[in-house]
User: Fold this.
Amino acid sequence: MTAGTDYKKGRLARRLIVAILLFSTAITVITTAVQLYADYDQDVAAIHSRIDQIKESQLNSIVASVWFLDNKQVQLQLDGLRRMPDIEFLSIEVEGEVKWSSGKIVSSESITQDFPLIHESLGREDEIGTLKVAASLDEVFRQLYNKFVVILISNGFKTFLVAGFIYFIVWHLITRHLDRFALYAERFELGEDAPSLNLDRPASKTGAADEFDKLANALNAMQLKLSKSYGALKDSEGYNRTLFEQSPVGQALCKMDRTFVDVNAAYANIIGRPINDLLGIRTSDITPDHYNLYDLEQLTLLQKKGSFGPYEKEYIREDGSMVPIRIFGHLLDKGRETFIWIVVEDITQVRKAQDDLLLSEERFKDFAESSSDWLWELDENLKFSSFSDRYEEITGIDPLKVLGKKRSELDWVEADKEEWDAHLKDLEERRPFKELTIRLTRTDGTFLHSRLNGKPFFDADGKFKGYRGTGTNVTDIVKAEEELQLSEKRFKDFAEASSDWFWEIDETYTFTYVSPSFEIRTGIPNSSCMGEKRHQNKALVPMDGDWSEHLKLLDAREPFVDFPFKGTREDGSTLYALSSGIPIFGDDGTFIGYRGSGRDVTEMVMADAKREQLEAQLRQSQRLETVGTLAGGIAHDFNNLLMPILGYTEIMLKQLSPEDSMFSKLERIARAAERAKTLVQQVLTFSRRGEQSRKPTNLSEIIEETLKLIRAAIPTSIKIRTNVEDNCPTVLADSTQMHQLVMNLCTNATQAMGSEGGTLTLAMSSTEAELLTSPGVVHPHIKITVSDDGPGMEKAVLERIFEPFFSTKKQQGGTGLGLATVHGIVSSHNGTIEAFSNPGEGASFEVLLPVFEGDDKKEAEIKENSSGGNEHILFVDDEPENGDLAKAMLTDLGYTVDVFTDSLKALEYYGENMDEIDLLITDQTMPNLTGEGLVRNIKSLKKDTPIIMITGFSEHMDEEKSQELGIDKLLMKPVKMERMAEAIREALSNGYKA
Assistant:
């Protein structure tokens, strides 16, 4: 141990304990932070989930209450929502003013979210206010703080106990023995006898040596070897001194402060100073100042790695001149002191040769860069070995892609074969060559024409070493000659390749030239124009047939653009074209005619006509969609009215005998309600919300059955003609609705023809058409066509033919729902329907339905016992009449029934009694919490709860949506007792879903 070293016992153990404590503390803090962050993230996510739950389940009911300005209901809803965990404040702003609020924000940290209140009516959306929800984070932070304190205290106490135990073990087993080793090494002196190192500790019971025993033995063996080596080293110093002094290489020995202590004669000769003048001075004294900083960097490198260099620098000779040297050094340990061994080499001659070579290269480079030509070199194998920088600038070719290749390996094209053959002979005989013209391909695909000159060169012994030469860019000269030859051919090619055609007329307006593309593009022979005057030509005439205005333009020598023409092709089709032209004059200003072009715009004209037709169809579709939404809303309310009428009538009929005087009257009420139900079902079908049961259906059988019914019901003056294709594929459809579709179309056709009679034509065939759900995708379709010989329809009638309640037969009792129902059926089956008619020409309806490409095997229908049961049912409907009816019907079937008209209270009741409730039956459209929201909440509490949803009409609920929510059955109001009983058994058995 060196003098002055501050040493204390146990320092290593204390540093180890401090490191353990710091590391353990850091790990504790990090893991605690990660755990607390995960808990915080989870708590915040739960708050966001509750806020999202408000949006999903409550927003629609709040919108309804705000829309009707039901202040009490709005306040009740806000107060109810504020009772949710962490929710501390809710408000509704209308036009920037808070109209309703509940609670207040008292937390220092909170989450606030705004929801716009959007009211939808007849396809229109109005923003009527904003719902603001604020949730407190104070409870989250309080829980996180408590967890942090508990974790930190428990981990800190554990770490303190472990660290104390480790401190004792390290000191007892390690650090006290290290002190012994350090004391032994401190007292060791080279060349003096030293006692052996012995450790103060009890011997091992097994006699086996451990690591400290091995270290003590190794130190004792090292002391013995050093003593022997020290004597041998003294004997070798004389020999090494002789080598140092006689060496032809400059060598010197310096202290670590770079002071010379020994220098040989070769070193002094290179420096140009006597040996005695060097001893005692520093290397920095003979080094120019600008090298000192770099020398210090090398000295630092020496201390780290034990050596430096070689690197080049200069020394100052005694006469003041500079000598360039190459220097490197090593650390040399001589007992108690360390020296720097320096070796230097005089590089004066090397520097001179390098400077001469650099000057020569710079001179050649200046010549090459200032030349307008590029320089090249071939080796003895006639492979390119060098290019000047100008080569890439002029040719645009990367030299690296050419170097090492022969000319025959490149895509160079020789301008003349005879000239190239002569050039090859010159190369074989090692003769110079001049003016060899070749063509190169640039990297951008353009061509470069170059003229080459070259001469062979040989080494000092006369051996052939290759060729050197120049290249000149003559592209502009060659290109000018080629462009002159190609000018006329280019125009001819353009004229023949253009999608337009070109023409020329003389001063009498007679055609003198028409390009070949005219006949190709138009299908009209060129001969129909050549030699004909422009205004007398019959192949193409103005759109309005009047030449006068156009001739005035020509006589005024004015240019014209896009003059419209039309003509008739050889195949009889109509051609629409545009023509543009400019007048041409001679050098003396004399008018000599017109030149111009023509363009076929037939497809553009036809596309415009098609666009107008599609826009008319779109307008009709939008009208139908609006009316359908209105009709669906009316159907919803009507179904709610029919529900108790049908239900209570069924109950009363069961309680009366057929002989009772009231029985027949109730039957009439039931039949009237059934007719009303059928009418509503037609409206729902038009609105695409009717109850459907689709399966692969053969339409041929349906058409055959429908025709039998029609034949018996229509006058004999009407003939029926059918053309049904054999083996038509099936479609995925509701067979009842398909019967209704064909029946309604045929009935409409027979009514149009009336008693005067005519022919009803019904055809069915396979065809290809675009899918309504995937525009641009062609798919197999079934086409059904129903035509009649009736009086036809005006355009105004045709545009409204599919609107509900629109009828031209009001006086004959028409309801106006027949074709509207057909349109709804077709649309709900992803098909299309079009009507074609003109006054006096009858009418034709064309229906396209996509072919079903799945398995045609029908699924087996599961028939369950629908007589009733003893399960516990929760029934939810905001209409009290429907609730009372359901309880009466279901109780009569043997079920235990709980009825709620408030969906929020029903949810609370379910949460308390979920294990006792076997089935949920709920309405969809309800205030506060819709049926969909109620289903989502109940599924979150108990996923496998059987659910039946009943709806009169809802744009937000259909069969597909109900299956996604996990609803077992979706029923349309009004529901008969028999249908309800059957649905309950299917849902409870988790069987077939309609």
The two ends are 94 Å apart (CA to CA). The chain has 24 helices and 33 strands. The first strand starts at residue 87 and ends at 94.
